[in-house]
Amino acid sequence: MTQKAAKGIDRDQVVHLGTLARLELTEVEVEHYTLQLEQILGAIASISAVATDDIAPTSHPIPMENVYREDVALPGLRLEDFVNDAPAFEEDRFRVPRILDQPS
Amino acid sequence: MSLDSDLTRQSAATLATAIARKEVSSEEVTRAHLDRIAQVDSRIHAFLHVDAEASLSQARLVDAKLAQGVLLSPLAGVPIALKDLVATKGVPTTCGSRILEGWRPPYNATIVEKLMAAGVVSLGKTNMDEFAMGSSTEHSGYGPTHNPWDLDRIPGGSGGGSAAAIASFEAPLAIGTDTGGSIRQPAAVTGTVGVKPTYGGVSRYGIVALASSLDQAGPCARDVMDTALLHSVIAGHDPRDSTSINAPVPDFVAAALNADVRGMKIGVIRELQGDGFQSGVLERFNQSLDILTELGAEIVEVSCPHFHYALGAYYLILPSEASSNLARFDGMRFGIRVDDGNDRSVEQVMSATREKGFGAEVKRRIMLGTYALSSGYYDAYYGQAQRIRTLINRDFAAAFATVDVLVSPTSPTTAFKIGEKLEDPLSMYLNDIATIPVNLAGNCAMSLPIGLAPEDGLPVGLQIIAPAMADTLLYRVGSALESALVDRWGGLLISEAPSL
Q: Model-level pTM?
């Protein structure tokens, strides 16, 4: 282990995590999550005491690599299958909010 | 089966046989279950969506095929309830979340296609903890499900709706998914049977992902044979799921018929008993060990020392994978969108949508996962958890070198009261202490009812764990124990449940 687990978690970190996770947290939530994340991380901190320097990580329970299948063309989704369930749909496209600043 | 008996009290196997012999139609069986749902579900709230007409028309289609002599499957005509994270084309699929309210998937999950091809009739979609995060179904965005044994208590989670539907005789079969115990723990606390197949044994295509390296769909029913029949229908390689195991499906039904444990070595996990386990749970567990001994098995104690760290590793791996998987719920292509307007940036709309659409537990785990994966902490948290996962695999491998299967109580306690643990996430997480190691290792496991705890009269479950790809052992041991218990009780435990 090259890094140390953090000692605690503070309010500013929680606000930052909320931004990263795209959650518009309320003041009350920030308070709750600061406390709860600290509690949860404290409760699982014991895992950092386990010596694992020579242990390889397991990312997946069944070892598999390079899973291929035949490149067979299959019919894709039809517009009418999802057009009515999209939050906003115009001119055969998903309408999304602007992603760039508008020119002044 | 006499046709005047209550169709909803029959096993799936019995119903399928009667339907195949034309003693009863799938439509009649389906209607009986829809009537039962109409009668009791206002008190249980197992279902989020029921479309009686659609179910009946599916049933009539199966009846027509059977009349033509088309052989569909050993479960043809039997109805089933589906956990609401299984994609069903044109049928609402919410994952218990407000963020997907009203969403109807444009395609079917592979297991839905398999069930339809087998002539299994869908009754509807069942309630669950939001995005399968929870052990009580209280974290559903649509209100809790109630345990048929005591309506003030939880039915387990996250698949509480599927378990409660079966336990209240609203459905003979259900589909669940199990990431850390979400099939097995609900089975334990409702007196039903649930199987978590070997990871990769059942296709995950079209099942909304929680933690991709842990998730596995599986069968729920009231007895072992019915889970074996359902498992046979949904199992098998799927080219659309790259984690699906490319190997022939073993004969689960034959294994359930071969209810013989003579000469088998059964390991009791030292770390999954004692402190934190309710006395009545341990009492029933120890009685079951005596029964297994009487049946000719040899019981030995084994130690899995790293199981102490399983919960910690799980609550880093799961939130990490979940925070990544749930990034797709951004209000752009499906589900709700909040606060959309010309002056709002895409980040603002996404943040407002996710804030409103996700419930407290989902946000908590997204935050935890985002933290565990963030730069500077990745190796100390996620990396360390993955190395612990290796050590847990080694514990299992060492145990299975000396025993055929492992057993433990499925859940440390019987069903707790609704609301009791809602404000205490840590105590809620402890419910999964015995089930989580199995998901980390990708093994298979079954929970089956072994009696009522003397102190509260609520069901207790026993967990059988077998190595990956050895699911047949679960059915063999499970049906041997079940049949010995049924002999003692004079019927299934579930027949003791209050009549509602």
A: 0.96
Q: List the one residue out of B53, B24, B479, B55 whose CA is nearest residue B229.
A: B479
What is the extent of the structural domain holding A4?
Answer: 1-53
- DSSP E strands: which ranges in A16-100? 89-90, 93-94
- pLDDT value at A102 more than 70: no
- A34 in any annotated domain: yes
Give the DSSP H/E element, type plus range, for residue B35: helix B26-44
Give a yes or no: residue A40 inside a domain.
Answer: yes
8 Å CB contact of A23 and B367:
yes
Provide, as residue numbers in chain B, all residues whose Cβ is less than 8 Å from the Cβ of A21.
323, 354, 363, 366-367, 370
Number of domains in chain A: 1
The CATH number of the domain holding residue A3 is 1.10.20.60
Pick from A44, A85, A97: CB nearest B315: A44
Q: Which CATH architecture has domain B10-305+394-496?
A: Alpha-Beta Complex (3.90)
Round to whole Å and give the CA distance between A16 and B359. 19
Burial letters B212-246, b for 16+ CB under 10 A, else e: ebbbbbbbbbbbbbbbbbbbbbbbbebeebebbbe
Element (H, E) at A12: helix A11-20
CA distance A103 to chain B (A): 13
Low-confidence winner among A63-72, B392-401, B471-480 (lowest mean pLDDT): A63-72
B309 in A contact zone (CB under 8 Å): yes
Tens digit of each residue's pLDDT (9 = 90 or more) over B210-228: 999 999 999 999 999 999 9
Q: Is residue A84 situated within a structural domain? A: no
> Coil, helix or strand for B160?
helix
How far apart, in whole angstroms, are the C-alpha atoms of residue B150 and residue B148? 5
Whole-number CA gyration radius for chain A: 23
Query: Interface pTM (ipTM) of the complex?
Result: 0.91
CB B150 within 8 A of CB B415: yes
Does A49 fall in a domain? yes
Closest CA to B392 of B238, B237, B135, B180: B180
The answer, yes or no, to whether residue A8 has pLDDT greater than 90, is no
Pairwise CB contact (< 8 Å): B323 & A94: no
Query: In this structure, are strands B121-126 and B47-50 parallel, antiparallel, or unpaired?
Result: antiparallel
